[in-house]
Amino acid sequence: xxxxxxxxxxxxxxxxxxxxxxxxxxxxxxxxxxxxxxxxxxxxxxxxxxxxxxxxxxxxxxxxxxxxxxxxxxxxxxxxxxxxxxxxxxxxxxxxxxxxxxxxxxxxxxxxxxxxxxxxxxxxxxxxxxxxxxxxxxxxxxxxxxxxxxxxxxxxxxxxxxxxxxxxxxxxxxxxxxxxxxxxxxxxxxxxxxxxxxxxxxxxxxxxxxxxxxxxxxxxxxxxxxxxxxxxxxxxxxxxxxxxxxxxxxxxxxxxxxxxxxxxxxxxxxxxxxxxxxxxxxxxxxxxxxxxxxxxxxxxxxxxxxxxxxxxxxxxxxxxxxxxxxxxxxxxxxxxxxxxxxxxxxxxxxxxxxxxxxxxxxxxxxxxxxxxxxxxxxxxxxxxxxxxxxxxxxxxxxxxxxxxxxxxxxxxxxxxxxxxxxxxxxxxxxxxxxxxxxxxxxxxxxxxxxxxxxxxxxxxxxxxxxxxxxxxxxxxxxxxxxxxxxxxxxxxxxxxxxxxxxxxxxxxxxxxxxxxxxxxxxxxxxxxxxxxxxxxxxxxxxxxxxxxxxxxxxxxxxxxxxxxxxxxxxxxxxxxxxxxxxxxxxxxxxxxxxxxxxxxxxxxxxxxxxxxxxxxxxxxxxxxxxxxxxxxxxxxxxxxxxxxxxxxxxxxxxxxxxxxxxxxxxxxxxxxxxxxxxxxxxxxxxxxxxxxxxxxxxxxxxxxxxxxxxxxxxxxxxxxxxxxxxxxxxxxxxxxxxxxxxxxxxxxxxxxxxxxxxxxxxxxxxx
Length: 767
Prior knowledge:
Elements lengths: L16 H11 L11 H5 L2 E6 L3 E6 L16 E5 L4 E4 L13 H7 L3 E7 L4 E6 L6 E8 L2 E8 L4 E9 L4 E6 L15 E8 L6 E2 L5 E4 L5 E4 L10 E4 L23 E6 L2 E9 L4 E6 L10 E9 L3 E6 L2 E6 L7 E10 L14 H14 L14 E6 L1 E8 L2 E8 L3 H13 L5 E6 L3 H5 L14 H14 L3 E4 L5 E2 L7 H4 L10 E2 L16 E3 L5 H14 L5 E2 L19 H19 L2 E4 L11 E5 L11 E2 L2 H6 L5 E5 L6 H10 L3 E6 L20 H20 L6 E7 L2 E6 L4 E5 L4 E4 L2 E4 L13
Parallel strand pairs: 23-26, 23-36, 26-27, 31-32, 32-33, 33-35, 35-36
Antiparallel strand pairs: 1-2, 2-3, 3-4, 5-6, 5-11, 7-8, 8-9, 9-10, 10-22, 11-19, 12-19, 13-14, 13-16, 14-34, 15-18, 16-17, 17-22, 18-19, 20-21, 24-25, 28-30, 29-30, 37-38, 38-39, 39-40, 40-41
Helix pairs in contact: 5-7, 5-13, 9-10
């Protein structure tokens, strides 16, 4: 086979060498002292390091180096997809000829590894590029199915070993932080610390003439088109699984969606690439940028993972902000998988050879099912409407002239039963109920593990009557135990169980003024529960849930937040915290029954039975070119999921329609109290959720959507196309839905229904 010796340069794989060389020279004729080259020129200096039936890994051939000229190997490799000959380069082969990039950026483009070094004495951080071969020593050794490369960054004295391993259908890039060596002084202090590592920052980079886009799992998902000319937009850089909330901001941070899936995609017509942070994602940033942007001005579009080797924090010393880092390099394994895809991998239903984000989602779904052992929980012919009910909160009252915070019922157990009955009477079908703030500890803000119903809501008898009613009407229900922020009491204390920041101070949860974004001084600051407490806490919760006969559970916000504890007494990294939460959820699933997870991070999917709060949009960064339902494409037919609260939206009708287009069940927030009763409480954010107004409407929306969603409940989405106001979704079982956002209608296999025929209120949908 030709590919075994040299990759095929077919029209579908790579441009003709002569045409490519001619066009590139004309584009970058003013590049500094760089002789443009084509793929054939580069492959002539390379050799195969590993090969299987599907892929071939090519590396620089050190045997061809001119020792007399002190020639050094280039930090360049090629991953060849032998099914069609397409070549994925670790860096652009003419990166050094980029006509608009600075020398530093050209070196970065030509690098497989970019190491960020923190120099404590000078309070600076510096990037070192492995492609700068004058300052980086590269040693390549063959290993089974790949190569082992040792990078020595001479200026900072840091040595980084990396393995490139070829598997059946993907390339793995692997590094163990325990093998990183830093230059130490006489007191065993490293003068320069390895702080971050960008892995293959230009793998599959697209030049200024290519068309395609990046697939970003921000919120529901987003795409960034190559060369979108958004020169003023900031590069994309967000923490996978959200930022570490131990570092409390001085002002309220912008509201953004999280990144629950540690992956991204590159779509280039008939070829695509799925990248997965298989290990180390808990300390990883997802970064992307386009050609010509101001802060990363190159001719190339690129997307990559950047791993934080050490956590950092800041504290104020006078008028100066000081960066501090973990002293020791935490042990972690960094592993990234790169899956090349071709037209033969396509799942899109339009018959075209081009791959799109649907194919990226399908391959990642396969990864979750096969490699992460995520069990299929979706059932056929099933839809569900989730209702979140909120019990009690703390409210300030005057007692003998003194302001006192007292437990206050917003929705009693009796209210909850009445709301559920009204939903059933209004025609609501299959429901699942999430109960929030239903225990004394939950209402008062203490660690919630006793599963004891609050007396102010109706006590044990009221709770038993409510749960009996749920059982009689076949309604699944999930008691929620929130355990992130807490006040001292119940065996957990701020002095001993609070997470510690890297700077050494306690981590606190601060409420901010809605108008100005500054800390809200009227409320007592809560502590952030240390992850070191998770194992014993969730064992207690599992035991008490079983003791009280609970048959399901939810851990609330803990499904979607991740943070560490950097104190000397009970240090827990983000990676260890994620593992602890996953093991705890596994225990709860075994002992307490099915688990409801709210917008869960990927490491919790194996232990999740149903999902709530999947967003239908991204964070909306300026660099984005549109939202896609990437998370829904991955999870549909695997684990059932719902939207965020429909009634929290300013346009509930459109949210319902978009939910149907994404195969998403609906969710509503409800409580019995009036909005005026919620002022200056934690529940004031639910001003929209009064049950008197929303009960009938929620049931009407459910009647409109339930049978549509049930018809595809266990089927994967194979195509999702948005064209103006029309959204067409095709499923593996042959069902096709067409949502018309202007006509407020849904067509199912050609049969049209209008929202106005189901929803009696809402003038916006009656026109």
